[in-house]
Amino acid sequence: MNPHISSVKNIPDSKPIVYLIDKETNLKAFRFSKDEINYIKERIKNKKKQISINRFTTWVYLQLVENKKLQYKMKENLRKEAHKLLPQIKENNHKEITLVDGCNNPDCILAFAEGLALGNYQFLKYYKKDVEEKKSPLHKIYVFSKGVSKEMIAHIQITTEAVYHSRTLVNEPLSFLTAVQLAKEIQHLGTEAGFMVEVFNKRKIETLKMGGLLAVNKGSIDPPTFSILEWKPEKANNAKPLVLVGKGVVFDTGGLSLKPTKDSMDYMKSDMGGAAAVTGALCAVARAKLPVHVIGLIPATDNRPDGNAYTPGDVIHMYSGSTVEVLNTDAEGRMILADALSYAKQYDPELVIDLSTLTGSAAVAIGKYGIVGMGNAKRKTFNLLMESGKNVYERIVEFPFWEEYDELIKSDIADMKNIGGRDAGAITAGKFLERFTDYPYIHLDIAGPAFLSGEDSYRGKGGTGVGVRLLFDFIKNYI
Prior knowledge:
With 479 residues, the chain is α/β, with parallel strands linked by helices. It has helices spanning 34-45, 71-91, 106-119, 131-134, 150-171, 179-193, 202-208, 211-217, 273-288, 333-343, 360-366, 379-392, 425-434, 468-478; strands at 4-7, 17-21, 50-54, 59-64, 96-101, 140-144, 196-200, 225-231, 242-246, 248-252, 294-303, 315-317, 323-325, 351-356, 371-375, 396-398, 416-417, 441-445, 451-452, 462-463. The strands form four sheets. Strands 7, 8, 9, 10, 11, 14, 15, 16 and 18 form a nine-stranded mixed beta sheet that branches. It has a six-stranded mixed beta sheet with strand order 1-6-5-2-4-3, with helices on both faces. A three-stranded mixed beta sheet has the order 12-13-17.
């Protein structure tokens, strides 16, 4: 359950409280006793960042705020510190907690609230025993700060809820989340958040001749879907829409190029992390009623090695009219994204950003610590996106997008081939996708951070919802 976050005008007397303090904070102003102040100072002297005080009637916690010079790193540290407090919150059965801004810095208290809320996520749907014991008790987070506005609180609430939705979609197994069910979940979230959703079924996709999506789907017993999400406020600030494209491979076996290595297939329910991010971003943008026209495109299918599956050596006729020689059926994400990127042309977009768990090369290059980005959009636009990456600590590492990489995807028998060899695998995947664009374009490969096999602070374990907060922050500051 996503805790409800709201502001309060007074500090409660007998409920759990977290004071965010720095070395200049006047502790006497918060009614600490002399003994408590001495204890706090002694703990700080011993380099303790989190301090707990049991007042018997309630618990009081203090969080020391440091490293203020780099604001974005300070905020990330506080998100992580908030996550460290969650075991005590559960042990002491705190159903609600009040955060007090003792260092007069709204960014500090908002980051801490965000870390608490994101770290509190749980995916318990399939547990049948001891579910109540596993549940976190935390339901409400109150914020006491003169510098925090209602809009700031609302945006934290909205984005954390959107991340929850994204994580849950990624964590769902194929036994539930087929391409058809993904489209249904998107429709449900659209109704809740207030954005429009149109879903193309297989017959419509065949009529449109989306050859990339249909080719990947050939080995599946379940039909593909193509979902169009749209938030179009009456007074949008952009004349041309911003289009977000998300890879929706709900499970990837590799197809006939079956994934061969240890663990390579175990987490492939997460291969729709891009679709989940785009869905979460639309949820957040619509709930916040941002004055920006945003469209989301999500091609979805699973990739399986059935007897009718597409094969290495096949030549596929894409929606754009181009032909692609398939040399590896495990390079399927770019095939379905290519059709979506071509479809985006009809909107005459101002900018298109795709998010996808596209290549192992990206994950190998930078691990779980960031997102690989590349594209041909204006430097100002890319810089703004990278600044948002720092703000939410979903940092982007820009890879080169030189024209020489185009040589690596030339085919002897078709317009292009779907892989470029071992060298620069993440980049050649991006260059392949660029072939289907005629507008400013940014490609984000989230293969590293989208799904984690071990817990990583407030990002948790499993689906992380990476991309949701990044896109929301970017769109909020875009126009």
